[in-house]
Specification:
This protein is an alpha/beta fold and 125 residues long. It has five helices and four strands.
């Protein structure tokens, strides 16, 4: 059997709320929030890695405040932070290039959260 190409793995970047049950096909489960999820015991979250510094900066997170009216500007600003890079971003890019990854996040809004922007960034990285 032929191994998957880099592009195949990058298309296999899943998103899942931390409160959703893990699935066998999640691949590497990576928490991408800067803060620990509210109400979640550390031993209850099934994850392989916690990369805090792939999350939006505290200033950007506070500015956004999960306000859908700020979504377009938030995406632009967060992409700029991701493009600036850091060791956690580089580690996640390398991980996603080599295997299936599921990005775990705690936000309630599944249509307006940083994990969506991060997944798109990883697919283009």
């Amino acid at each position: 059997m032929v191994g998957k190409s880099r592009e195949d793995h990058l298309s296999e970047i899943g998103l899942k709320r931390v409160y959703d049950a893990p699935e066998p096909d999640d691949g590497a489960r990576v928490l991408v929030d800067r803060l620990w999820p509210r109400g979640m015991r550390k031993d209850a979250l099934k994850m392989d890695l916690w990369l805090k510094d792939v999350a939006p900066s505290p200033d950007l997170r506070h500015w956004f405040g999960h306000d859908p009216d700020r979504w377009a500007e938030f995406r632009t600003r967060y992409r700029q932070e991701l493009e600036a890079g850091n060791p956690d971003i580089a580690r996640l890019v390398a991980l996603a290039a080599g295997e299936k990854v599921t990005l775990l996040y705690a936000a309630h809004d599944e249509a307006h959260n940083h994990a969506l922007v991060l997944r798109d960034f990883l697919r283009r990285a």
